[in-house]
């Protein structure tokens, strides 16, 4: 029975994603009607978009591998806190994170002061360096978490066996870690590539000028300043095509690593006790933590004096954002489980899940608006639409965490479950869900935090009463109230971390043993 | 899945006040914020109109026009408030707006205003703002700025109205030589941001010496923060104007109420809150005058402004030369 029921759930989830991504694009294209040819500026935008996305993905993953390895091999006080903090950069609104980064790397930032004190000049980070730096700041944590999951999924028995065979770290890397990396890294790199292809505000703010024009900016311009829906639709289609190609490539590269079954015992790494490895891992962890925590610290310091006494509407917006986050995280997990399960029979389901990340938020918003406007007052639908769209947009992250984990569970325990005729709900209850606790917690945390921090499509739908917290932060900034905005940003950061920690806690319960 | 969503929608929907006619005004985000002009304007108008004034926020000025275009004649909006002069030609072209037909009182604008559809409610000059403690003698013209090594933050004309304003400012001051000025400015530009907030935020963080904003920006710091260190630099070429306007939609079902609102818009109840909420000059100076602190602001000698159709006609070529100069 289960075998038949789950594809229906997967089809349902796929339809949900398509309705929120492809359908709006089709509606915008249909409304636009006429044909459109790309200009030289658009081609330059496509080139820059690809270049910065590839660089951001490679650097993020390249740095994440040693960091995840160090975190997997070491136990130290504050490790859990650090892993929670790793979720933070991903969810703060772009402008807040950029201001945090500039407090460190900017022209009046910490490094600039340090360089000045030593008699050097500090060139600042504007240009492709700044764009990649910011993207790595946003995505290194995500890459680290995804790869760390991979490490923690290697059964403890393998390391025990490796230790008893006297394998050295190089052998362990070749025999245990490399196959895992082959399976996990292409997916993580693809995800980051996709996130960066739709980057807009980061690329523009830190890019230093129109050289750093991305496709998303071109869409924005076509829609808002030229009201050229045809061009916006064509550009959005190109963005989809780039994403589709990247997703296909990564799925082709990723080999499912079957590492054999284990008994879910805690991992002990006998191989990691060597002093040289200790030093190496400690250095990597300290550097990684500084890279991520210093800008966050700047956000906290700026916000702290203004946290009390924010305008009332900020707290109301915060409550609304929490409501949106809880519902959209639940929706994300349901859809991700359905798609991950469907993907075991047809990988296309997993690919559909990534559509959300490729979609231009502006085009989604416009398309949904055109669809819904004839039916109902858009302002009334603001929150439901935000919940649904945030769920579709955070689905790729959830899927990235859940799909490999689910495949692994089925590969390890599926035969036994089949032999026991464990199907339907019972299979989920006894076999799958207990072993997916960690990725489900992580995915729910990411989805909730992402939903809290996302401006998404609400701008077209929002009215005075329905603003979410990120939108309220932008409104404060637009009214010169940068101090209040800093306080509200800290509130958002705290809420997102709390959401992430709460969801993740359930998932990490077994990691603490 | 569907039902909780609909329930959530109903849960948060605001109940309309019973039996009162509703006047729906579309405007930009910062107008309706708790700290913006919206709440005071709403209270003042509802005292006399016997109606329920509802603001709907739709992003920034450009998003506002896009939204009205998407909705077309079926829009619920009776009034659109917050278009700026650079969007007027596009707005007029849609044919969605109706003449205001009002007796316009004497306006305190630096230029004559004769448009029969769009009524101004506030205005300001674009200007480069600096911190007087960090930059004692700012450049005195666009040309001097281009030659200097003063660093600046500007907004992208493809995504922001101040960015577009600067594009037309250089165009109005230099015409055919605009490309040269942009080439001169290109090494002064630290970065180009998506919107005003990002640029101004970066400026306050000390990322550049000057930022493209308004001559009225220092008034915020002086009045709200008691910080007298911010100033706008007066430029010899003159300063480009931004005038913000409102208009009635032809398809409004509350036409009389809309006329009443447009008339109210130019009285003290509306104009009096503009200087310290929108931080712009009111279109009609209130009886009590401007708030204390506004007298410290610079007053440009020359106001630059293209007529709406000319601004629209020049925009594409100006944008191309801007892109050319800054992409090298």
Describe the structure.
The complex is a heterodimer of chains A (513) and B (328). Chain A is an all-alpha fold and 513 residues long. Chain A has a single domain (2-33, 48-512), classed as MetI-like fold (Orthogonal Bundle). Chain A has 23 helices and no strands. Chain A has helices at residues 2-32, 40-73, 79-85, 88-91, 94-105, 110-117, 128-153, 156-164, 169-197, 201-207, 215-225, 229-253, 275-303, 312-342, 348-353, 355-358, 361-372, 382-419, 424-435, 437-453, 458-461, 469-478, 482-508. In chain A, helix 7 packs across helix 9. The longest helix of chain A is centred in the C-terminal third of the chain and has 38 residues, at 382-419. The radius of gyration of chain A is 23 Å and the shape is globular. Chain B is α/β, with parallel strands linked by helices and 328 residues long. Chain B has 2 domains: 6-123 and 242-294, 3-Layer(aba) Sandwich (D-Maltodextrin-Binding Protein, domain 2), CATH 3.40.190; 125-241 and 296-326, D-Maltodextrin-Binding Protein, domain 2, CATH 3.40.190. Chain B has helices spanning 2-12, 29-32, 38-49, 61-71, 88-93, 142-147, 161-174, 178-186, 196-204, 217-225, 255-265, 268-271, 274-277, 308-326, and strands spanning 22-27, 52-57, 79-84, 97-98, 119-131, 152-155, 189-193, 210-214, 230-232, 239-249, 281-282, 303-304. In chain B, strands 1, 2, 3, 4, 5, 6, 7, 8, 9, 10, 11 and 12 form a 12-stranded mixed β-sheet that branches. Mean pLDDT of chain B is 89; it is low at 1-17. At the A-B interface, helix 5, helix 10, helix 11, helix 14 and helix 17 of A face helix 1, helix 2, strand 2, helix 4 and strand 7 of B.
Query: How would you state the average pLDDT of chain A, rounded?
Result: 80
Mind telling me which CATH architecture of the largest domain in chain B this is? 3-Layer(aba) Sandwich
Q: Supply the CATH superfamily name of chain A.
A: MetI-like
How far do the termini of chain A sit from each other?
36 Å
Q: Determine the CATH topology of chain A.
A: MetI-like fold
Total discrete domains of chain A: 1
How far is the first residue's CA from the last residue's CA of chain B? 52 Å
- Uncertain residue segments of chain B: 1-17
User: Strand share of the residues of chain B?
Assistant: 15-25%
Summed over residues and divided by their number, the pLDDT of chain B gives a mean of 89
Summing up helix and strand content along with how strands pair, one would put the structural category of chain A as mainly alpha
Shape descriptor of chain A reads globular
The portion of residues assigned to helices of chain A is over 70%
Quaternary structure type: heterodimer
Radius of gyration of chain A: 23 Å
> What's the SSE pattern of chain B?
HEHHEHEHEEHEHHEHEHEEHHHEEH
For the secondary structure, the number of strands of chain A is: 0
Structural class of chain B, by secondary structure, is alpha/beta
């Amino acid at each position: 029975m289960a075998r038949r029921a789950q594809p229906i759930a997967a089809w349902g989830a796929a339809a949900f994603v398509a309705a929120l991504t492809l359908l709006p694009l089709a509606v915008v294209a249909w409304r636009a009607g006429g044909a459109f040819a790309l200009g030289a500026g658009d081609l330059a935008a496509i080139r820059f978009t690809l270049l910065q996305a590839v660089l951001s993905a490679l650097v993020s993953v390249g740095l994440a591998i040693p960091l995840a390895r160090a975190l997997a091999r070491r136990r130290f006080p504050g490790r859990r806190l650090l892993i929670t903090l790793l979720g933070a950069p991903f969810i703060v609104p772009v402008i807040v994170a950029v201001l945090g980064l500039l407090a460190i790397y900017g022209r009046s930032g910490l490094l600039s002061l340090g360089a000045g004190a030593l008699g050097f000049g500090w060139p600042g980070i504007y240009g492709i360096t700044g764009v990649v730096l910011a993207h790595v700041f946003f995505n290194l944590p995500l890459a680290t978490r995804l790869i760390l999951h991979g490490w923690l999924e290697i059964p403890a028995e393998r390391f025990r066996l490796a230790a008893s065979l006297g394998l050295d770290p190089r052998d362990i890397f070749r025999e245990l870690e490399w196959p895992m990396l082959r399976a996990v890294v292409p997916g993580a790199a693809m995800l980051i590539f996709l996130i960066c292809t739709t980057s807009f505000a980061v690329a523009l703010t830190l890019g230093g000028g129109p050289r750093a024009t991305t496709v998303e900016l071109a869409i924005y311009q076509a829609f808002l300043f030229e009201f050229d829906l045809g061009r916006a639709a064509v550009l959005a289609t190109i963005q989809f095509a780039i994403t589709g190609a990247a997703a296909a490539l990564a799925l082709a590269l990723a080999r499912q690593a079957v590492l054999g079954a284990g008994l879910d015992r805690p991992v002990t790494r006998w191989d990691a006790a060597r002093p040289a490895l200790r030093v190496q891992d400690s250095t990597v962890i300290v550097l990684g933590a500084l890279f991520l925590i210093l800008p966050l610290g700047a956000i906290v310091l700026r916000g702290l004096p203004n946290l009390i006494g924010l305008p009332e509407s900020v707290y109301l917006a915060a409550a609304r954002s929490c409501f949106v986050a809880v519902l959209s995280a639940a929706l994300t997990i349901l859809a991700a489980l359905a798609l991950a399960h469907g993907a075991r029979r047809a990988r296309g389901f997993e690919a559909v899940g990534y559509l959300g990340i490729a979609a231009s938020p502006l085009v989604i918003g416009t398309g949904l608006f055109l669809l819904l406007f004839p039916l109902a007052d858009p302002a009334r639908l603001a929150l439901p639409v935000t919940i649904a769209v945030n769920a579709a947009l955070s689905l790729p992250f959830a899927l990235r965490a859940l799909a490999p984990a689910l495949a692994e569970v089925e590969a390890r325990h599926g035969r036994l479950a089949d032999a026991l005729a464990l199907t339907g709900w019972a299979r989920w209850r006894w076999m799958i869900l207990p072993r997916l606790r960690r990725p489900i917690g992580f995915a729910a945390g990411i989805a909730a935090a992402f939903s809290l921090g996302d401006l998404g499509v609400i701008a077209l739908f929002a009215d005075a009463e329905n603003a979410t917290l990120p939108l309220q932060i932008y409104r404060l900034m637009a009214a010169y109230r940068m101090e209040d905005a800093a306080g509200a940003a800290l509130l958002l950061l705290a809420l997102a971390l709390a959401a992430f920690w709460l969801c993740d806690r359930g998932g990490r319960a077994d990691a603490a043993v | 899945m569907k039902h909780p969503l609909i329930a959530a929608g109903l849960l948060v929907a605001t109940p309309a006040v019973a039996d009162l006619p509703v006047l729906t005004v579309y405007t930009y985000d910062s107008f309706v914020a708790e700290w913006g002009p919206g709440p005071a304007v709403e209270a003042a108008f509802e005292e006399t109109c016997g109606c329920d004034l509802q603001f709907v926020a739709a992003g920034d000025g450009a998003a506002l026009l896009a939204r009205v275009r998407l909705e077309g004649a079926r829009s619920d909006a009776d009034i659109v408030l917050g278009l700026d002069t650079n969007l007027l030609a596009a707005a007029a072209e849609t044919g969605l707006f109706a003449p205001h037909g009002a007796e316009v009182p004497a306006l305190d604008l630096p230029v004559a205003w004769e448009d029969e559809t769009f009524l101004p409610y506030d205005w300001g000059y674009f200007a480069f703002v600096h911190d007087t403690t960090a930059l004692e003698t700012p450049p005195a013209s666009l040309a001097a700025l281009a030659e200097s090594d003063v660093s600046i933050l500007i907004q992208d004309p493809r995504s922001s109205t101040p960015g577009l304003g600067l594009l037309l400012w250089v165009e109005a001051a230099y015409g055919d030589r605009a490309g040269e000025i942009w080439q001169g400015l290109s090494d002064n530009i630290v970065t180009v941001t998506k919107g005003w907030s990002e640029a101004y935020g970066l400026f306050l963080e000390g990322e550049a010496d000057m930022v493209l904003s308004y001559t009225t920006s220092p008034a915020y710091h002086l009045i709200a923060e008691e910080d007298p260190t911010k100033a706008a630099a007066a430029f010899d070429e003159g300063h480009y104007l931004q005038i913000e306007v409102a208009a009635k939609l032809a398809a409004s079902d509350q036409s009389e109420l809309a006329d009443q609102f447009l008339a109210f818009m130019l009285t003290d109840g509306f104009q009096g809150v503009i200087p310290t909420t929108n931080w712009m000059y009111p279109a009609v100076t209130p009886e009590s005058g401007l708030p204390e602190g506004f007298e410290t602001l610079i007053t440009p000698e020359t106001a630059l402004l293209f007529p709406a159709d000319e601004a629209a006609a020049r925009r594409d070529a100006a944008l191309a030369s801007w892109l050319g100069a800054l992409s090298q």
